[in-house]
Amino acid sequence: MRETGVINGALTGAAGEVLRGPRAGTAAGNALPWLAAVSAAFVLVHLALIAPGLGLGWDESVYVSQVSPQAPAAFFSAPRARGVTFLVAPVTALTTSVMALRVFMAVLAGCGLFLALWVWRRLLPAPVLGVAGGLFASLWITMFYASQAMPNLWVAYGALAAVGCFLRAARSPGDRWAPAGMAAGVAFAALMRPTDAVWLALPLAVAAVVMRAWRWPLLLVLLAAGVVAGCAPWIVEAYVSYGGLAARLDRASEIQGRLGWYFSIDDHVRALDGRLLCRPCDVAWRHPAAALWFFVLPLLVAAGVRAAARTRRHRTPLVVATVVGAALAAPYLFTVGYAAPRFLLPAYALLALPVAYGLVRACRPRPRGRRIAVGIVAVAVAAHLAIQFRVADSAAERVRRNTADLGRIAAELRALGVRPPCVVSGAEAIRIAFRAGCASRQPWGHDESITPEELAAAAGHRPVAVVVAGGGRPPAYARAWPAHPLPDLGSLTGLRVHVSAAGR
Fold this sequence. Notes:
Layout: H1 2-20, H2 27-50, H3 58-65, H4 83-92, H5 98-118, H6 126-138, H7 140-145, H8 152-171, H9 178-192, H10 194-210, H11 216-241, H12 245-255, H13 265-271, H14 292-307, H15 312-334, H16 345-362, H17 370-415, E1 423-426, H18 429-436, E2 439-440, H19 452-458, E3 464-468, E4 483-485, E5 496-499
Parallel strand pairs: 1-2, 1-3
Antiparallel strand pairs: 3-5, 4-5
């Protein structure tokens, strides 16, 4: 059929370029249409199918509230970094529209994908970069978080750019901008998640020494400078607001369940059926098909690296990408006792490169078996994409339902007289407070930012609402306040709010 011929021709041409390698002077030009097409499709698909109706999540509400005039800033707990807040600041300064924020972040994400892969245009053939970008962008995790004010996707971009620039700096003494690009990529990752940047810089430092890279002492200095520059705001804030760096690190570890030795691979596998956070992850593995690619991934990575074994020009970049990707995944798989699929986005971005190389190489032109190989790859990719979209759509639909529920709760609070300046505490306080234009304050837990006595005192001169779920009891200072039923919020049923006299 004509369609089959077109697919065969495209894959054959791509494989041929892999075998020949990128030609000097044409690699950049060849990469442009591949990367532009993938990045544009990524943005358009997300905005058309995922973003509509997607309200701000818990973490997003914290990051956005730091710069949004919609509500007072939520408590900023010890593990968080300010990088995402800096990203959203330009649009939140102009509007409180969530859809405007989604469009802005989605377009920014598309540009980030393009630029992070563009760095690799002199290292790997254009078709490999295009396929890698498509594989990464089509993961339900990437598609779901494309427009969200969350740090992990941006760490992935910083890691991709940093590794690409490192390889270019190690290979080409004349590539003057590559060392600075490497340092900037590491600094950008550190600004988003400081600990991730450390796990990014360490294997690169080892690679610089092992490879006897050109100017390797300079590369080591720049790697360290990138980590320090990106972590500087987090470190300064540790001394200003958390009692010092050691105290902040200890509190961050406590909030994450105390970092230590865990085996969390099974948690991450179960979370791949669309769970945004699996904590604790003692749940059934309901949809094994959604995680099959996770088990196949190491095999595909190994196949891609092996396919490049005879081509030194491609082998080194793929080996380094694999090692750094594994290093970025290791702390989440073995030191954190719970799972969130977004944690592994930086690893997936780097591992997509050897996978793409292997898939394109598998479709290399042969007199026999070419159509069979292309057909198998095409069917496998189509099935993978179908599953990824189904999971992304399911996750987005749950958030849309929560968004509608939160809107009804905020409207109910306003009807009860809970209007700015106001305070919300209790169950789901951060998301409810942000939508109602109130401050969120908790006298206990990870977001502890006020004492019960201070909260009770605030109730004397401003509306204070304490939200209780199910059979829970309000704190002592709120038990005499009238209780009002609230709409259910997802799995939280029996919600009610106790409102102080200042709110009535």
